[in-house]
Amino acid sequence: MSRIARPQGTALLRFDNLTLGYNRHPAVHHLQGEIATGSLLAIVGPNGAGKSTLLKAIAGELRPLQGSIERNGLDRRQIAYLTQQATLDQTFPIVVHDFVAMGLWREIGAFLGLGSAQRRRVHAAIERVGLHGLEKRPIGALSGGQLQRALFARVMLQDAPLVLLDEPYGAIDAASVRDLAALVRQWHDEGRTVIAVLHDLAHVRQEYPETLLLARELVARGETASVLNPANLQRARQLAEGQGDGTQAAVCRLDRDAA
Ligand code: ADP
Ligand code: MG
After folding, report:
1. Where is the ABC transporter domain (predicted)?
2. Which one of 12, 16, 228, 250 has the minimum C-beta count within 10 Å?
3. Three-state DSSP state, 211
């Protein structure tokens, strides 16, 4: 995979008084701050906290209601964005190989054939995520973990300096989580910036040096160990409860993970 041209430590993303929402109703309020190039950042918070909304906006798929996101010259095509699982149509008739190869569409266009170098990259990506031998299987016949591996292979082919992952380990088996987390570490080592929405706080503590705790506003941001302290988690819970709109389940989940 290619080198990342940006020097480490400079701001890749800058939020200035960023307010996001839908139909003029704010979902995330007044975010301020920067995300440095090369960060490995977890976004954590109760259900409805605006985590997916924030990723969507970073990906350029949602316009701010107020304020701005600066991307330091980064093009939308340089952002690999894995959306939350529910939005994927698994009945779409496509086999693993072609599904993964779609990661190259920005390079080759939708209907052009693959060159031999590209074919090798597709196979390498399939191999890297442990799906070797399943190239011809329809994606509808994959387990949750296998499908997620295919999605990660596709992200790998996009070769993007910024990778956004929205709850990538939703309901998948432990072996898949372990393998895909290793791939995320590799992306980080390659100098890519990775931002992941996650709910397993133990996983976040183990894998992510930095965390942003969100509850419709910024609760805390910084080193994971200090962000995920009981006081901050309690504050996130209170902010979520104040909304009174079905955030309860995820609040309990945060509690359980914190215990
Ligand atoms: P999270 O990912 O933290 O669970 P979301 O970003 O999905 O939270 O949602 C934040 C808020 O925005 C919620 O109140 C949700 O109902 C609302 N919301 C999310 N997507 C849409 C949408 N497409 N249209 C209207 N409201 C939305
Ligand atoms: Mg979400």
Report:
1. 13-240
2. 16
3. strand
